[in-house]
Amino acid sequence: MGCALLNGTQGLLDMPSIHQSSHLSSTVYLFYGPQATQEELKSSYRRLCMLYHPDKHRDPELKRQAEQLFTYVHQAYEVLSDPQSRAIYDIFGKKGLEVEGWEVVERKRTPAEIREEYERLQRERDERRLQQRTNPKGTISVGIDATDLFDRYEEDFEDAPGGGFPHIDINRMHISQSIEAPLTTSDTAVLSGSLSTRNGNGGGNINLCVRRVTSARGWGELEFAAGDIRGPLFGMKVFRNVTARCFVTAQWGLQFSSHGVRPSATTMMARHLDQNTMGYLQWRWGSQSAMTTSIVRDTKTSHFTLALQLGVPHSYLMMSYQYKFQDEDQTKVKGSIKTGFFGTVVEYGAERKISRHSVLAATVSIGVPQGVSLKIRLNRASQTYLFPIHLTDQILPSAVFYATVGPLAIYLAVQKLIIMPYVRAQKEQELEKQKEDSASEIARRKQEAEASVLLMQESVKRIIDAEESKMGLIILNAWYGKFVSDNSQKPERAKVIDVTVPLQCLVKDSKLTLTEASKAGLPGFYDPCVGEEKSLKLLYQFRGALHQVLSGDTEPLRLPKQFHS
């Protein structure tokens, strides 16, 4: 097991018992990375003790600072030397140490036993949080009839009252909401309701569903519904994993109305065809009986669906493809074609993440005999807002053009004029708040770093003398922080610190090795620009030749570079 727990500034050293020392986390780079053995830990511990031992400093102030740092290093070694604490962190990280109940765990347990105990404690914590979770979900759909923009005749336009302005109407609306109510760790009740209206007529219904997880392989649920449109409904659904690659679902229902009882049933079987591909076979019996088979392939960069349905009254063949861009905004473009007894529909569109919790999508639908429609969807957390806009009953080039270009132009304008300034302002506010909250902590770490640099001076002189004698590795200049471009008016040194001495102190046998973690945790380092992107720039000499290196904050670094040797 390793000692990744001291990695960067997020190490085990943040435990409450030793929280006063951020300097502890800086020792990771002298502990040979996450696979360090006990012998390597002891070797690095001895090296740090020699560097910070109070008896090696005569100046009273340096001696006081050395005593403090020496104590921190000793505490860090005690943590790393404890097999249980080290095993807990290596398996679960910092969160594992925050789980209540470790104090009652028997000592000398194996990693497997520790993992089992952690999962038990985690379950207990989840149970305590169970009653606080309702997972609300909602959908609001507003249907808009804009056919008057394209389908009106010229004579109608001239005779129309109100100066011939086109009429845009809201012809339908739908609102639904659901909440979950956990009853036990295996039972959940879901209460949902909806209201719908179309051309002045509407209604609603309420639904109660109770689900029980019977085992790791299956669950079942009962459904009760009532409304003024379809009447009472009683249903049951079960899910079962048949094998590791195959599962089935079955659903039965009884719909009560003034015309009698209408039974229905649905069965579906799904199977993993390979790592990214699923095959589905569904049979539905009732008022709209059908047999459907589909293949769905989902990868990191694409999503493909091919489906065939044979049924009454609709049979169709559908194919869709979606490409996923690997960008920060998670942009996706998609297209589909669907043809059957009802006609043919072609759709294309795109979706993009516009903020941390919001996704905006637009889809153009062109069909015979449906005409041209534009569908706009906004997902905000667990809420969905839909705006289907019917543009024309015919396939008109003008309607297709405006449905395609219009949303794109509006999005670009809103993105540039509203969204980007808003997101930028939010980030600046968060950064300023982060700086304010961490100001005292950064000041303390800066003081510790400056004390460490003073304590390193004599050791660095000896290291430089030894390296010069064999033409080894000498750090001439090193800067850490945020660097600005040459054409920027901001002073570069305002957000960088000189780390020449701390890096030279880490040189051993003409080698410098930094593992994959934030360099702000190194001895003699601190974060000069909280929340901003940082890098390390250094100039070093090896075998009489000068070399310059630029490394990202969390990138591993090994000097000298292979091509500099």
Can you lay out the helices and strands and say which pair or pack?
Blueprint: H1 38-52, H2 60-81, H3 83-92, H4 94-98, H5 111-130, E1 137-145, H6 154-159, E2 169-182, E3 187-198, E4 201-215, E5 218-227, E6 233-243, E7 246-257, E8 260-272, E9 277-285, E10 290-298, E11 302-311, E12 316-324, E13 332-340, E14 343-355, E15 358-368, E16 371-380, E17 383-392, H7 397-437, H8 439-469, E18 473-481, E19 496-498, H9 500-505, E20 512-514, E21 535-542, E22 545-552, E23 557-559
Parallel strand pairs: 1-17
Antiparallel strand pairs: 1-2, 2-3, 3-4, 4-5, 5-6, 6-7, 7-8, 8-9, 9-10, 10-11, 11-12, 12-13, 13-14, 14-15, 15-16, 16-17, 18-19, 18-21, 20-23, 21-22
Helix pairs in contact: 1-2, 2-8, 3-5
Question: What would you note in describing this structure?
Answer:
The chain has 565 residues and is an alpha+beta fold. Helix content is 28%, strand content 39%. It is built from 9 helices and 23 strands. The chain has helices at 38-52, 60-81, 83-92, 94-98, 111-130, 154-159, 397-437, 439-469, 500-505; strands at residues 137-145, 169-182, 187-198, 201-215, 218-227, 233-243, 246-257, 260-272, 277-285, 290-298, 302-311, 316-324, 332-340, 343-355, 358-368, 371-380, 383-392, 473-481, 496-498, 512-514, 535-542, 545-552, 557-559. It has a 17-stranded mixed beta barrel. It has a 4-stranded antiparallel beta sheet with strand order 19-18-21-22. Strand 2 (169-182) and strand 3 (187-198) form a beta hairpin. Helix 1 runs antiparallel to helix 2 and helix 3 (83-92) packs across helix 5 (111-130). The longest helix is centred in the last third of the chain and has 41 residues, at 397-437. The radius of gyration is 33 Å and the shape is elongated.
